[in-house]
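Q: Hi! First time doing this. I have a protein sequence and I read that you can turn it into a structure. Is that right? Here it is:
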Amino acid sequence: MRKGLLLALFVLSGILALGQEVKRNEFAITYSPVSNDDLYALLIKTIGPIFVEDFDSYASGALSAEYFRSLGNMTAVGGIFSYYEFDTDTDGEKEHYESFSFLLAAKLRWYRRRWFGAYSKFGAGITWSEWDEEKPRKFNFQASLLGLEVGPAPFRAFVEMGAGEQGFLVGGLRLSFGRKKEDPDLF
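A: Yes, that's right. Below is the predicted 3D structure, encoded as structure tokens:
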């Protein structure tokens, strides 16, 4: 099923890209205090003290880097790399865990103007986690149903609302480069 979902994502991206000209690249850095892994950390922090008297935990939130290559005015495909930390302190014994995720993603820009844009972003991929020794790799996703970006070219600030590995409320900065001069005054 996971392979089928990734294949469907690639096929959908290809269909949307037919006949469109490549125009630009985007690189973004994002941060979210609440991701899929943070929900796991919150569950541990809530349930942990029930079983262990001296228990504490800390979750860092998800820090991500993403790259998208435009396939036209409305679509882009790319990848998302996400990093996450989780620390526990159980009866004085401290443990540190890390999680790395790589997602293949597609973006649909459905409103674009010179200083403002709106889009949706969907990605699926794999996460490597240290804290789950039985299943260190797991399927993960990001579905940002609403992304809002503002600012002049080539830099934009953005916020996304959705669910997944990057988070439920994601904020960041984006750099767009490689834009053709004949593009209209769209970003």
